[in-house]
Amino acid sequence: MAAPKKGRSASAQSRPGRSLAFILIAIAALTGGMFLSGHPTPRLGIDLAGGTSITLTAKNEPGQPNAINKTNMNTAVDIMNRRVNGLGVSEAEVQTQGSDNIIVNIPKGTNSKEARAQVGTTAKLYFRPVLATEVSGSAASASPSPSASSSSSSKATDKATEKATSSSSASPTSSATSQGRAVTDALKADSTPSASSSASSSASPSASSSASPSANASASAAATKLQAQYTALDCTDKAQRAKAGEGSKETDPTVACGKNSSGQWQKYVLGPAEVKGTDIKSASAVFDTQSAAGWKVTMEFTSGGSKKFADITGKLAKNQSPQNQFAIVLDGDVVSDPFVQQALTGGSAEISGSFDQTEAQSLANMLKYGSLPLDFKESSVTTVTAALGGEQLHAGLIAGAIGLGLVVIYLVVYYRGLSIIAIPSLLVSGALTYVIMALLGPTIGFALNLPAVCGAIVAIGITADSFIVFFERIRDEIREGRSLRPAVERAWPRARRTILVSDFVSFLAAAVLFIVTVGKVQGFAFTLGLTTVLDVVVVFFFTKPLMTLLARRKFYASGHKWSGLDPKALGAKPPLRRTRRPSAPVDPKEA
Question: Within 13 A of 456's CA, how many CA atoms are on the CB side?
């Protein structure tokens, strides 16, 4: 059993160059990737590079005077933080200030326009039936906006809707009101009237025999008000678009604006919300390679949402245009209004249209993380300078350089020739840390802040400690009287166990710190964990192979006094040699 083990050990000792080649190639590849990515330096946090500070003020919603409270504010902070800082290392800060303000700090290098949209958008999503629609300023119905479809075989398409009837063209507002009242009643009663019958039934007071006169009067007043809003609405006016449907509840019909597939502004009369954003389980941005739609957002509904979506599409499929359409309304804007031919029972849907990658990912992100419990207005946007952070970084780098210099001096004075192994190992560790930090900026949004710099400085001591453990194990073997090459191989298993246990404890502490903390402390924990992992990589693939190679050199193998491995200086015992003594001749008499 011993012979094969010895053979494997000898084979491992004879090929340390492979490990060195592996790590050097890895460094070269990562460095090449860093330059190809266009980010040759790590992305800096707001305290080092400056950035944008946004103040958002919460607004009370109609009918909810006590909506602004600590619970809703904390929920809003959590959702905003996940939107702009999903991995916790992009250095975007979201925190409350006072009772109704939220401060969002976005570091330089982040797309501040996109981030502002992410944090400020309420992302309240509703699926509402379309009761009437026309191009803003025109009496004719227009083609719908980009389509939404089910992932099942039954799909909602984005073909042009049918032309409005002559009666609706003649009097669009009157038709909008009659259709709106009829379709809303029809959806609530789970009936399927046609457009013409709906109009006639809505015009007659006897459409609902069970309705009381006061209820009819109230419905008539609401319809009149909705008609006036729809008539006056001009969606080409930005101010009117912002106020469209303002104050309406999700359970009430409303008016809204959106762009159709031709890029024209279109106005809508919409029924009560049938499906809400909370009924969506997940959302993701996907590039559609099968059509010219480009980027789209796919949504998967919850079990309850799937049933609601199947019910509403089943009802709409029995109506005539435009009442066979449903509008996907995000924060009051219609982002899509496909018409339905069959009930969509697949449990998922998609929003497609003229999205680019950023817009699709932004929308998916907002749908995935949920809607804000409050509406916010942007109170102020200011630019944050990095003057103070720059001075602190300069001081931190000086402290790091002093610490590194003291470690190098200690290694040279105490370990002498072994410092030729330790110093390059520190440089390799530093190079890997720098390159990976630079690559993590564009990939996961990692931003280097002052606590992260502190974590990198602490890592110098962790890495140096691993070298010291290995060197001292080798010295212990030499003190036992072994020559250098066997001492290196015998010392490595013992040193390896100690290094792994030590680094595991450090990594565990960093992981716990990352999980239980928020903000800048996470930057420290992330950097500490990263450098701890890199310490293991450097020791296994650089320090140990380099030590094995140098142990074959006469300068080290002979125990030169400047090698740091002088047996005399270490108080080594005489070499462990087994000499076979000649056996004494056997006395024939004794035999």
Answer: 24
